[in-house]
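Worked example 3 (structure in, sequence out).
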């Protein structure tokens, strides 16, 4: 009897523990019934004077990508007066993972459900901060499903022209994307390091903790989608749409971080965003060439020793920058003539 009562109380106790830290978790249900986890980080001042920030983790990673034991980008933004929403989409963290789920459903179902849940609490445009391949999907969604909902974007190593980055990645995703297995034993840990952390400067124990708590399997269908995207350079989203077509119309003001040591989403996969999109893209290279202490990896740009100085602070500065003065509209613009895409 006591065990049954305790089982009922545990979720409430866990929620109370989160609330004490200014963090609240709610259940969001996508249109197909899949339950998604949405974390809300409320700053001490309420954060109502500025747009909320939506954080989207990389495929296979959950909340821990941005908040690992109370440390990370989510907490940094919260401490600096920003209200933060951290979404775990299907297949991530505590969200559902229906059998056979596809990457396109993150765009068509999950991101719209998350945006609607945020708008119910915080009307108005939000800022988007997204990582890796999930980040690219979020950029694609901003032109259709999230059209009008996104103000500015911080893109962390988001591939727009991907290729298979390595034989390790090809093997991992050809066999079903079992990322959770990368936390078991030295050989698996080495694969994890080669893909996501090679050459990065991390605090002691940080990578071991992330491997043990922050990884989720993609499943065969989503893993096949990701590998196909890497091989073909594009991902179909249905209805004649694709990631590459969407990126060609993408137009949000964007700060793009390029970690030169990224062995999962190589910088040359992400850098073309400035040339192929309609967006004003500011590029920040994370490299020793820029007098930094490392050529950042896929994960050290979020969990590295100097990530707060080299990534978090520039991202916040970009999001906090005042809006540029609006130029007078020309007759062509008023008629919808010039560059109407």
């Amino acid at each position: 009897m006591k065990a049954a009562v305790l089982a009922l109380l545990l979720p409430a106790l866990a929620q109370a523990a989160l609330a004490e830290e200014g963090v609240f978790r709610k259940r969001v249900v996508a249109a197909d019934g899949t339950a998604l986890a949405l974390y809300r980080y409320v700053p001490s001042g309420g954060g109502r004077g500025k747009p909320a920030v939506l954080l989207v983790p990389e495929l296979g990673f959950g909340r821990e990508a941005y908040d690992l034991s109370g440390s990370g980008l989510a907490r940094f933004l919260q401490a600096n007066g920003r209200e933060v929403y951290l979404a775990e989409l299907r297949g991530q963290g505590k969200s559902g993972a229906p059998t056979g789920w596809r990457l396109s459903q993150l765009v068509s179902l999950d991101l719209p459900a998350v945006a609607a849940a945020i708008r119910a609490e915080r009307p108005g445009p939000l800022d988007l901060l997204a990582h890796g391949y999930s980040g690219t999907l979020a950029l694609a969604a901003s032109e259709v499903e999230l059209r009008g909902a996104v103000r500015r974007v911080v893109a962390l190593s988001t591939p727009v022209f991907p290729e298979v980055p390595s034989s390790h990645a090809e093997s991992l995703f050809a066999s079903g994307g079992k990322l959770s297995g990368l936390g078991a034993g030295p050989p698996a840990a080495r694969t994890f390091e080669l893909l996501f952390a090679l050459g990065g400067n991390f605090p002691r124990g940080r990578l071991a903790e992330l491997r043990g708590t922050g990884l989720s399997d993609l499943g065969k269908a989503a893993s096949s989608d990701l590998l196909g995207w890497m091989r073909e350079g594009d991902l179909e989203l249905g209805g004649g749409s694709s990631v590459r077509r969407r990126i060609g119309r993408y137009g949000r003001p964007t700060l793009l971080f390029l970690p030169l040591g990224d062995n999962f989403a190589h910088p040359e996969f992400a850098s073309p965003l400035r040339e192929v999109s309609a967006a004003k893209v500011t590029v920040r290279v994370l490299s020793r060439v820029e007098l930094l202490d490392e050529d950042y990896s896929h994960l050290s740009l979020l969990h590295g020793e100097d990530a707060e100085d080299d990534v978090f602070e520039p991202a916040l500065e970009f999001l906090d920058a005042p809006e540029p003065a609006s130029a007078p509209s020309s007759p062509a613009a008023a008629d919808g003539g010039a560059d109407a895409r």
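Notes: The chain is about 40% helix and 15% strand. The CA atoms of residues 253 and 325 lie 14 Å apart.
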